[in-house]
């Protein structure tokens, strides 16, 4: 698979983390519960910084507090993975830098800085075979952004034959990653989803599936205007789905985020 840069990343931030060992993760069996609790704070901070919300500083401070607890518990729990503590340091640094950006009234830079956290933790979990639902969403998000980059700033008149060719295989990759998401079992209790939030999740996943279908139809018909419009419809339902994993009560009041 070819990885494509996301709008908020420099290429350097997406470089693979060197792995010198993948010995078994010496952590408690409920580590996924701790990751899910951490992500409730993380997703909230990510969404509110993206919106430049007045509540962003409070959310990032809460994320700092959650991270400190997580780090204290697990920083020294793996002595064989030479990237383990380095990854922890990178996450802590990003959260601290995001907080500094907020002090400078720069919420978008704070958001961009926080974006890298989920990729660092995804790689850490994958190295240690920690199966985690949000990682599948992150992989789809990456494929989706690669797809959207093709049509960004384009109109039906400026969309080229080369764009269409690139869009076909990027759409295929996004469809593949979305199928992987759909195939995953979802532990509602683990992520704190009540019945209402689960219903929202089903709704947004259905909307995302339909949006991908509409884009596929537009691409196959080679309708320039239809392609641009259909591509613009892909991101909103996914953003609403991702934001559900934040710390909102009740679920319907969770703010939309242009992830």
Low-confidence stretches: 1-27, 251-258
- Mean of residue pLDDT? 87
Q: Predict the CATH topology of the largest domain.
A: Four Helix Bundle (Hemerythrin (Met), subunit A)
Order of helices and strands: HHHHHHHHH
Tell me the β content: under 5%
Share of residues in helices: 55-70%
CATH architecture of the largest domain, by name, is: Up-down Bundle
Radius of gyration: 19 Å
Annotation keywords:
disordered N terminus, Four Helix Bundle (Hemerythrin (Met), subunit A), disordered C terminus, mainly alpha, 259 residues
Written overview of the protein:
- The chain is mainly α.
- The protein folds into two domains: 31-130, Up-down Bundle (Four Helix Bundle (Hemerythrin (Met), subunit A)); 132-259, Up-down Bundle (Four Helix Bundle (Hemerythrin (Met), subunit A)).
- The chain is built from nine helices and no strands.
- It has helices at 31-50, 56-74, 84-103, 107-127, 133-151, 161-183, 195-221, 224-232, 235-243.
- The longest helix is centred in the C-terminal third of the chain and has 27 residues, at 195-221.
Brief account:
This protein is mostly helical and 259 residues long. It has nine helices and no strands. The longest helix is centred in the last third of the chain and has 27 residues.
Topology:
Layout: H1 31-50, H2 56-74, H3 84-103, H4 107-127, H5 133-151, H6 161-183, H7 195-221, H8 224-232, H9 235-243
């Amino acid at each position: 698979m070819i990885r494509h840069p996301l709008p908020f990343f420099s290429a350097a931030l997406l470089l693979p983390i060197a792995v010198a060992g993948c010995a078994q993760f010496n952590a408690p069996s409920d580590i996924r519960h701790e990751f899910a609790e951490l992500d409730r704070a993380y997703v909230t901070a990510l969404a509110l910084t993206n919106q430049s919300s007045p509540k962003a500083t409070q959310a990032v401070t809460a994320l700092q507090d959650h991270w400190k607890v997580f780090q204290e518990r697990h920083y020294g729990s793996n002595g064989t993975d030479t990237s383990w503590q380095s990854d922890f340091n990178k996450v802590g640094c990003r959260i601290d830098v995001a907080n500094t950006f907020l002090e400078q009234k720069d919420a978008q830079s704070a958001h961009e800085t926080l974006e890298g956290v989920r990729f660092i933790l995804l790689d850490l979990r994958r190295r240690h075979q920690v199966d985690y639902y949000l990682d599948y969403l992150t992989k789809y998000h990456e494929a989706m952004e690669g797809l959207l980059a093709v049509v960004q700033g384009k109109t039906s008149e400026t969309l080229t034959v080369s764009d269409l060719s690139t869009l076909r295989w990027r759409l295929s990759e996004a469809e593949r990653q979305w199928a992987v998401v759909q195939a995953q079992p979802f532990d509602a209790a683990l992520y704190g989803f009540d019945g209402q939030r689960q219903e929202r999740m089903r709704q947004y996943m259905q909307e995302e599936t339909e949006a991908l279908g509409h884009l596929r139809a537009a691409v196959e018909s080679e309708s320039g205007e239809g392609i641009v419009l259909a591509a613009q419809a892909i991101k909103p339902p996914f953003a609403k789905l991702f934001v559900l994993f934040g710390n909102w009560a009740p679920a319907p009041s969770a703010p939309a985020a242009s992830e």
